[in-house]
Design goal:
This protein has about 180 residues and is α/β, with parallel strands linked by helices. The protein is built from eight helices and five strands; from the N terminus they run E-H-E-H-H-H-E-H-E-H-H-E-H. It has one domain: Rossmann fold, CATH 3.40.50.300. It is globular. Bound molecules: adenosine-5'-triphosphate (ATP), (3R,4S,5R)-3,4,5-trihydroxycyclohex-1-ENE-1-carboxylic acid and magnesium ion (MG).
Length: about 180
Amino acid sequence: MRTPLKIVLVGMPGSGKSTFGKALARQLNFAFVDLDEAIENEESKSIREIFEIEGEGRFRELETDYLEKVLDGVEGFVLSTGGGTPCFNDNMDLINEKSVSVYLEVTNEELLKRLLKDQAGKRPMFAGMDEGEMILKIKNLLAQREAYYLKAKIKLSGDDISTELLISELMSFFR
Ligand SMILES: Nc1ncnc2c1ncn2[C@@H]1O[C@H](COP(=O)(O)OP(=O)(O)OP(=O)(O)O)[C@@H](O)[C@H]1O
Ligand SMILES: O=C(O)C1=C[C@@H](O)[C@@H](O)[C@H](O)C1
Ligand SMILES: [Mg+2]
């Protein structure tokens, strides 16, 4: 039996992992998993509730548990991680051991635009912040996280990354 292809998307909050992942899975006819959504469904709580009631530490434990479960699946898939997933526990090493990881690198200006557009309160990391505070938070998060994201096997940069570009990068990767 051929080894199933497991594609894991990583990147900053708002970089488009969920949106892009869904489109990529549809195009490849692969199963799609969004780690944040999987946690919310299984725990019957929103990410915001888990942060507020049980704290970020508990969320990071759950995140690693669900990540391991998905990565150990026998079928191929596209997995969109949460923005912080690669940066806690040994998650990024685990991702690289078991999948082809892809970093979606988007400019801070575009991240801000997208996060401002999204429903307030959807992302606990940015809860209650004004635009100036969000810019600082994006810069700080990227400074802490970029080294983890850069461990990905493939990096795609730009504010309008297409699924066709990733498919062509995947073909080069396996060539
Ligand atoms: N290529 C794109 N161009 C413009 N807007 C986009 C693009 N991709 C995603 N968006 C928009 O940006 C916002 C964030 O996208 P998305 O939720 O997919 O990001 P994410 O990386 O999954 O974030 P998180 O880490 O918080 O889960 C959404 O409103 C989405 O519609
Ligand atoms: O950047 C982060 O740390 C997070 C991003 C989201 O995808 C969620 O996983 C959660 O809100 C934490
Ligand atoms: Mg997402």
